[in-house]
Amino acid sequence: MTLGASRTPSLAELLQAAVQRGIEDIFVGLPGKVEKYDAATQTVDVLPMLRRPVVFDDGSESSDELPIIPTVPVLWPRGSGFFVSLPLEKGDLVWLVFGDRSLDLYKSSAGTKPIDPKDLRSNDLSDAVAIPGCYPLPKALRDGVANKAMLALGRDGGAQIHVTKDDQIEAENDSGAIVLSPLGEIAGVNQVGAFVLEAGGRFVVNGGNLEVLP
Q: Whole-prediction pTM value?
């Protein structure tokens, strides 16, 4: 809501404007760009990628760039001692989620029991966590799940491992590929040849047969 200078606003308008300005300081989720990644602590310095709108008392509008948020924890999938992680570098994009309460004490705790955050702030820029991978639609992944796999790990346009919906496992890079079929057959190919180890024991290299005895 804007309050023009042409008339005196009513009490209701003043209250609505005050509420609106309060809401503008509540952060829920934003895309962000990595400025620096600390692999030892799994934290990033992040620049929010959406500017904050500013409305002046005369009704004119502008926007401000939000500051870089330092030491934001990265949310890697993790449980029972297992984890999935990948390298992050300057320019990578993430999705920022902002805590309902201060995360300062939680970030330094053992994580074994609920704690009193002490600070009464809510949805503040300083209480962000980062989820990697919030890219604009023109930068959607070219490979992996988008094409054929139910599960894909690797580098977009580079080395990858795929698990297809029929339980076939494929590993490939620019120089070759290895495939494990649902029946146990193993096939490989590179720039100079190919081989197949059939489930029954026959081994074929570049078209030549070799029986593998039990």
A: 0.73
